[in-house]
Amino acid sequence: MADTARARKLAKRISQIVASALEHEVKDPRLARVTITDTKVTGDLHDATVYYTVLGERLDVEPDYSGAAAALEKAKGVLRTMVGQQTGVRFTPTLTFMTDTVPDTARKMDELLAQAQAADAEVARLAAGATPAGEADPYKAPREESEED
Fold first, then answer.
1. Dihedral sign of CA atoms 35, 41, 46, 49 in order
2. 101: burial class by Cβ within 10 Å (0-12, 13-18, 19+)?
3. What pLDDT digit, counting tens, does each position of 95-104 carry?
4. Quick one: DSSP state of residue 129?
5. Are strands 94-99 and 47-54 parallel, antiparallel or unpaired?
6. Which of 44, 81, 93, 106 could pair with 48 as two cysteines, CB 3.0-4.6 Å apart?
7. What is the pairing mode between strands 47-54 and 34-41?
């Protein structure tokens, strides 16, 4: 079994090779907006999971994830051959492509934080004009000792 440092280095190299191949070698128009975000390699260096995301052309149009997945599946053999030629490892890892959900999750978190900030601003606006329900100082003041005591 290989050490984790070697697996990380191989994963980084596979990311570079696949990204470069998608940009320069594979001529599928469905892969024009695909970005490789991360790669994980198993400890025995036999399987590699390549995470990708598809960038949309406009914010109001959903990216074509299914087309990109089909194109990556079609190009998997060519990409694995290129990985094997350029890494020089004894056994070329099998490639599995997974959609990276981190950008979508980050976008949702940003939306939730914006909603929370708006709610906090509304509470602060309401609190600015509010008056206390009872006395201004609801705590009991210490009893003053009189001269007779």
1. negative
2. exposed
3. 999 998 877 7
4. T
5. parallel
6. 93
7. antiparallel
Kindly report which listed range (28-37, 53-62, 65-74, 93-102) carries the lowest average pLDDT score: 53-62
Helix (H) or strand (E) run with residue 79 in it: helix 65-87
CA nearest to 33, candidates 79, 77, 69, 9 = 69
Tokens of 104: 């979508």
88 is written with which tokens?
A: 């020089």
Tokens read off for 131: 């008056």
Side-chain half-sphere of 79: how many Cα atoms within 13 Å? 31
Mean pLDDT, the chain, integer:
86
Residue type at position 97: F
